[in-house]
Amino acid sequence: MSSQSSACDRRMVNFCPGVQSNHFINYTPDDDKGLQDLKEKVRRELKTAAGKPSQQLSFIDEVKRLGVAYHFEEEIEKELGDIYDNYHDSDDLYYVSLRFRLLRQQGYNVSCDVFKRFKDENGSFKKCLINKDVEGLLGLYEAAHLRVQGEDMVDEALAFTTAHLKVLRPEGRFNISIYQDEASHSQALQELAKLDFNLLQSLYKKELSHITWDMYDAYGIGAEAFERWDNNSIDRLPGYMKPCYQTLLDAYKEIEEKENEERPYCVHFAKEVMKSVVRAYHNEAKWFHGECIPSVEEYLSVALVNSDVTVFTIISFVGMGRMATKEIFG
Predict the structure, then answer these.
(1) φ, ψ for residue 119 (rounded to 5)?
(2) Rounded to the nearest 10 degrees, what angle do helices 264-289 and 242-259 cross at?
(3) How many CA atoms, within 13 angstroms, populate the side-chain half-sphere of residue 229?
(4) Which end of the chain has the least Cβ crowding within 10 Å, N or C?
(5) CA-CA distance, 155 to 211, in Å (whole number)?
(6) pLDDT tens digits for 168-186?
(7) SS3 letters for the chain?
C-alpha cells in the first residue's frame, strides 16, 4: 500500500452538500422557555379529569400517543391506579377496551372477562359492533394486542376485529398534526407536544454535533489502544468505546488462559488479525474525513481486511483445538 501522503496528493472528492449541510455542526440549543408552564397546564387537566374515568382514560391515551407521558409518570400511575381500584361495568366497548389496554400497559392484571358482555348467546362477538361501533372495534383491536397466552377470548377479539376493520389507524399516524385537528383536543397538550418535540430534536442535534467532531479522533485513539492491547489504554478511550474494548480484552484473555499451554501461538495470531481490522477501519476513517479518494489497489487492500472474513476465519481456527496447527494460522 502506498504512503498516505501520496494518497492524499491525488484529486480530492468534491462532495455535493448533504441534505442537512452543516446544520448539525452549527447547532445552537433552542430556548425551552414555557415548557414548565405547559407541563403544569397539562398536569392540571389530568387532575381535572379525575372522577370522570372515560375522559380521564382518553386524555392519558392522548398524552401517551403524543410522546410526552414521561413528564407525567407519577400522575399517570396514580390516576390509572384509581381507575383500576374503582371499576364499574360499562357497555361502552371503546371505554372498556381503552381501560384494558392502558392498565395492562401499566402492568396491572386486568381480567379479559370484561369483554364477555360484548358477546352474543352463541359465544361470538356481537355482529352489531361491526357497523354501529367502529371506534369501539378499533379500541378492541388495539387492546387485543395486550393479550397473554391462554386468553382465548382475547385471541377471538383480535381475529374478529382484524376481519372486520377495513382501515386501521397505525400508531405512527396519531401525531401532532392529526391531534390538532380533533375537535376536543387540548391546546396545552398540543403546545407541549410541539415544544417537547423541538427540544428533543435540539438535544439530538447537540449529541450529533459532538459525534461529528469527535468521530475522527475516536478512531485514532481506538486504533492506538488496539495496538497497545492492554488495560492501561482504556482510560483514554471515549466512554462508548470502553465496554467494547474491555469485553474484547477479557474474551482474548480467557482464550489465552485456555490455550496458553498447548497452543500459545493461536492467541498471537488472533490478536494480530484483530489489530489489522482496526487499522483498516482507521484508514477508511482517514480517507473519509480527509475527503481523499484511494486508488483501487489501496481500497481493495483495506476492504479485504475489514470485510472481516480473515478475522472470523482465524477465530474459527482458535475454536478448532489441536486440529488447527501453527502452519494453518500462518
Answers:
(1) -105, 155
(2) 160
(3) 17
(4) C
(5) 46
(6) 444 444 567 777 777 778 8
(7) CCCHHHHHHCCECCCCCCCCCCCCCCCCCCCCCCHHHHHHHHHHHHHHCCCCHHHHHHHHHHHHHCCCHHHHHHHHHHHHHHHHHCCCCCCCHHHHHHHHHHHHHCCCCCCHHHHHHHECCCCCECCHHHHHCHHHHHHHHHHHCCCCCCCHHHHHHHHHHHHHCCCCCCHHHCCHHHHCCCCCCCHHHHHHHHHHHHHHHHHHHHHHHHHHHHHHHHHHHHHHHHHHCCHHHHHHCCCCCHHHHHHHHHHHHHHHHHHCCCCHHHHHHHHHHHHHHHHHHHHHHHHHHCCECCCHHHHHHHHHHHCCHHHHHHHHHHCCHHHCCHHHHC
231-279: per-residue pLDDT in tens? 888 887 777 778 888 888 888 888 888 776 778 788 888 888 888 888 8
Q: What is residue 230's DSSP assignment? A: S
Residue with cell 383536543: 185
Give the model confidence (pLDDT) of 81-129 as tens digits. Answer: 999 998 878 899 999 999 999 999 999 999 999 999 999 999 999 998 8
Residue of higher predicted confidence among 118 and 309: 118
pTM for this one?
Answer: 0.55
Rounded to an integer, the average pLDDT of 291-298 is 84
Task: Please list, in sequence order, all residues whose beta carbon lies within 8 angstroms of the beta carbon of residue 252, skipping any fewer than 6 positions away.
Answer: 267, 270, 271, 274
Residues facing residue 119 across a β-bridge: 125
